[in-house]
Amino acid sequence: MSSVEELRAWYREARASRVVDALKRRGYSACYVPDAAAARKKTLEIVPPGSLLATGGSMTLRQAGILDALLDRGDHFITDPSLPYGAELLEQRRKALNCDVYLTSTNALTEDGVLVNIDGTGNRVASMVFGPRTVVIIAGVNKITADLDEAMLRARHYAAVLNAKRLNCDTPCATKGECLDCRSPGRICRVLTIMERCPAETAVQVVLVGEELGF
User: Residue 203 forms beta bridges with which residues?
Assistant: First the structure.
């Protein structure tokens, strides 16, 4: 008899494979890898050396070691995630729209291949749909949801709440641990995107990882 973890790994891969097929039907390039190490290797294969890169500040990319792997290879990022919010960071985000490869994750991904994301500034979701020549989306299997309703709930009531706490936002959700649909100036739930199909003029590669990564 297989162990509990072996059975879980089998289920994760089977479910992710269905999502990969759904993404391909919607025009995306998509693949499944078993773990973060494989995700790093795959990303280095996808991203041509010497490309001008940008990212929106993804915990998934950090946790998987993907940003470090690209930096170690000598690749250059337009965006500097260590910068505090201000004019310099805002200008970098504008320039990111003209990068060769934009790397990010997604807040939620339905079993039938729809991507859902919520932003405060909108730079990340803007770059995911138009501007960069290629977009690479790395997502752990924890991001998969049964349908669009669950994806919307996950993005707003889970991912956004944890990101508000991570960023020390002055919002009710960062204190209470739940979305209260606030009117706070620090609110980061301002722009919602639903990507029903791959954008017409952007090549999007989705890498599903058989681990829990990010929020």
Answer: 134
Q: Look up residue 104 and give its amino acid.
A: T
Task: Judge contact between 69 and 97, C-beta under 8 A.
Answer: no
Q: At what angle do helices 36-46 and 66-73 cross, to 10 degrees?
A: 40
d(CA 202, CA 85): 27
Amino acid at 113: G
CB distance 108 to 151 below 8 Å: yes
Q: What is the reported pTM?
A: 0.94
Contact 49, 74 (CB under 8 A): yes
Continuous H helices in 26-115: 36-46, 59-63, 66-73, 87-96
In terms of pLDDT, which residue wins out, 85 or 139? 139
Please choose, from the candidates 67, 83, 64, 86, the residue with its C-alpha nearest in 3D space to the C-alpha of residue 75. Answer: 67
- Among candidate residues 115, 137, 153, the one with its CA nearest the CA of residue 26: 115
